[in-house]
Amino acid sequence: MYPLSYIEPVFRPPSEWKSLILQVTNGCSWNNCTFCDMYTAEQKRFQPAPLAQIEAQLKSIIEAGYPVYRVFLADGDAMTLSVRRLHGIMDLLNRWLPHKPRVSAYCLPRNLKNKSVADLRALREKGLSLMYVGCETGDNELLRLIEKGENFDSSLSALEKMKAAGIKSSVMVLNGLGGPELSERHAIESARLMNAAQPEYLSTLVVDFPHGSERFAKNFNGRWRQLNQSELFREMEVFLEHLELDTTIFRSDHASNYLVLKGVLGKDKAQMLDTVRTAIHQPGRIALREEWQRGL
User: Fold this and answer.
1) Angle 181-186-189 (CA atoms, 0-180°, nearest 5)?
2) Cα distance between residue 29 and residue 175, in whole Å
3) What's the number of CA atoms in the CB half-sphere (13 Å) around residue 71?
4) Is the C or the N end of the chain the one with fewer CB within 10 Å?
5) Contacts (Cβ under 8 Å, ≥6 apart) of 7
6) Most distant CA atoms of the chain, gap in Å
7) Phi and psi angles of residue 180, each rounded to the nearest 5 degrees, phi first
8) What's the CA angle centered on 173, arms 82 and 32, to 5 degrees?
9) Coil, strand or helix at 79
């Protein structure tokens, strides 16, 4: 929609499909997660975009008359930028978009380690109101196996900082990440993390490897395989059973999911559990996505 030149590939959350994707960084500063094929060293070398380049892009958008209702700060973890540079970006947005559209970004928990609640609150006051956080799991062993570079406590600390600063969080958990051996613990520990954090939004997608799972599976020493449908649904059942959320908007409707679930936790928990259990115990009663309909 917008006439900008990007360093490909560019990824954004599904809900940001109408947003201005502003590439304030290139690639991901961590780029070690074994489950992630979004960026590779061959494709992209992490670097921040110069502020002058960002301003030129904003200027071209406004002068061309394109409406901007939302802005997503790409690429993989824009929040790794310093507080000073983030303020510079937000100042440019406020200068060129004085109507203050919603601004969001991906965020790795480590991105906030050296940022205080006061730092984040100041960015919130300038319009940064939502961060997408790939926690993936709450289980420390699994986090180590996937080389996430995070643990339960670091993920919780980041989510608590966001909430204290008034910034909403949208958290992603990966269904099937631990294979059959770690499935139950993955579900329970992920629920425990979400219960402690109480994010505004929570979603799941099914882990998949269209380019092969060898890189991911190597750390499991032969203990990992992809879960089948029934196992995925059972893991989702355990996850939902252990969630104790108040007003979190829950979505399991990404294209990778066989079973679509939508609701608010906790008021819709019983209904969603009933749907999952029907899919497990009465195959064919619940409409599922066909393989050709799924994708990342």
Assistant:
1) 140
2) 25
3) 29
4) N
5) 23, 26, 44
6) 58
7) -65, -35
8) 50
9) helix
The SS3 assignment for 164 reads: helix
Fold of 14-293: pyruvate-formate lyase- activating enzyme (3.80.30)
Give the global pTM. 0.94
In the structure encoding, which two tokens stand for residue 217, read together? 């599976």
CA distance 248 to 197: 10
Q: How many CB atoms sit inside 10 A of residue 214's CB?
A: 9
Based on its alpha-carbon atoms, the radius of gyration of the chain, rounded to whole angstroms, reads 19
Closest CA to 250 of 170, 175, 177, 185: 170
Amino acid symbol at 258: Y
DSSP annotation of 260: -
- Express each pLDDT in 205-258 by its tens digit: 999 888 888 989 999 999 999 999 999 999 999 999 999 999 999 999 888 999
Q: Tokens for 102, please give them.
A: 């919603």
- The rounded percent of the chain whose pLDDT value lies above 70 is 97
Separation CA 27–CA 159 (nearest Å): 23
Give the CA dihedral 177, 181, 186, 188, nearest 10 degrees.
Answer: 150
Q: How far apart are CA 84 and CA 294, in angstroms?
A: 41
d(CA 58, CA 295): 32
Strand partners, 275: none
Q: pLDDT (tens digit, 9 = 90+) per residue, 15-37?
A: 898 999 999 999 888 989 999 88
d(CA 129, CA 102): 7
Q: Which two tokens stand for residue 276?
A: 């999952």
DSSP secondary structure code for residue 50 in this structure: P
- Displacement of CA 282 from its chain's centroid (Å): 32
- What the block records as the tokens of 136 is 């993936």
